[in-house]
């Protein structure tokens, strides 16, 4: 437990963290990777390059300082990050390294303003925060290993099938090389793929949502090819599309993630996706069909056009069921899309359309997609009076903000 003086010192740094947080976390990563380049085998290079990881960490440090006297208030955030850490292989021995370089970065950026008293208080606070993360993550590691079909670390999976779903999305069906059972998962969860790419000094780890319902003898991920190989995301997705074939072996983590469908509720559910954000939504949709045949579900997907729209046939087939309704939005439909009536609405999902078509009372909403799409959906739902506890969303990558 922290004493009152330490708590007061930490809280006094909140305005400084609000102003200089991203500068501190940017410097932190520079220092840490300079002294421990081996950690580049764990961290997402694309998120580093785009500044997303630095921004997310700054937000976490700020929240920890704000709630240093009530860390239970940020437990949901801790658990969300802990899921990521478990899937990446973050272990207790990494935390002292992080703590050391975070304190160095604070001192480096703030200079004389970072007094010995402030640094000592943050060192004490960091140990408390690290212990909270380590405790949660230890339970997650144990649970992942103990569950039926579970495992610790990485397990070898064979690419059993590789299916082109659209011009930009390809699905990979993964089966365990050892032929033993695989862990179940909650609809909306993801797995990590650990890749060693020729010519790359470090391994690349990417997390991909599982795009089928649990209970199968395989995992399915549906991967979007990102443009260009100069950026890390493009390098990894293009490698999967072009360099990984049926019969190849991939190293895979056990499923993780806290963005999951609540199957204990039987109230109506609306699943909204933009682009490749449909992957966790597909798992949720298929789970409702298989496990909750009486639950009303509406599936809304937005894409540029039919050329990039993946898994359309699966949704169409499920939409024949009485309790499933689906809508397709194209903002740039092709002439072929028009001739074949491939979509329901031209344009974007708007508040007025949702108000007209969707009964929001007692309905739960789940959405995922590009950040502008999610911001628009989030704002629309709030404008329509949907309560916060019935709005659920997932960022692909470090947590960001949906505030407009």
From TrEMBL:
Task: Enumerate the residues binding FAD.
Answer: 190, 206-209, 395-398
Q: Where does heme b bind?
A: 85
Q: Where is this region: Reductase?
A: 149-404
Q: Where does NADP(+) bind?
A: 275-280
Show the InterPro entries listed in the entry.
Cbr1-like_FAD-bd_dom (IPR008333), FAD-bd_FR_type (IPR017927), Flavoprot_Pyr_Nucl_cyt_Rdtase (IPR001709), FNR_nucleotide-bd (IPR039261), Globin (IPR000971), Globin-like_sf (IPR009050), Globin/Proto (IPR012292), Hmp (IPR023950)
> What is the active site of this protein?
95 (charge relay system), 137 (charge relay system)
Going by the entry's taxonomy, the superkingdom of the source organism is recorded as: Bacteria
Give the cofactors, semicolon-separated: FAD; heme b
Task: Give start and end of each FAD-binding FR-type domain.
Answer: 152-262
Pfam families referenced in this protein's UniProt entry, alphabetically: FAD_binding_6, Globin, NAD_binding_1
Q: What SUPFAM superfamilies does UniProt report for this protein, alphabetically?
A: Ferredoxin reductase-like, C-terminal NADP-linked domain, Globin-like, Riboflavin synthase domain-like
Gene3D superfamilies, A to Z: Globins (1.10.490.10), Nucleotide-binding domain of ferredoxin-NADP reductase (FNR) module (3.40.50.80), Translation factors (2.40.30.10)
The domain comment in this protein's record states: Consists of two distinct domains; an N-terminal heme-containing oxygen-binding domain and a C-terminal reductase domain with binding sites for FAD and NAD(P)H.
Q: What is the purpose of this protein?
A: Is involved in NO detoxification in an aerobic process, termed nitric oxide dioxygenase (NOD) reaction that utilizes O(2) and NAD(P)H to convert NO to nitrate, which protects the bacterium from various noxious nitrogen compounds. Therefore, plays a central role in the inducible response to nitrosative stress.
Please identify the protein, giving its name as recorded: Flavohemoprotein
- UniProt lineage: Bacteria, Bacillati, Bacillota, Bacilli, Bacillales
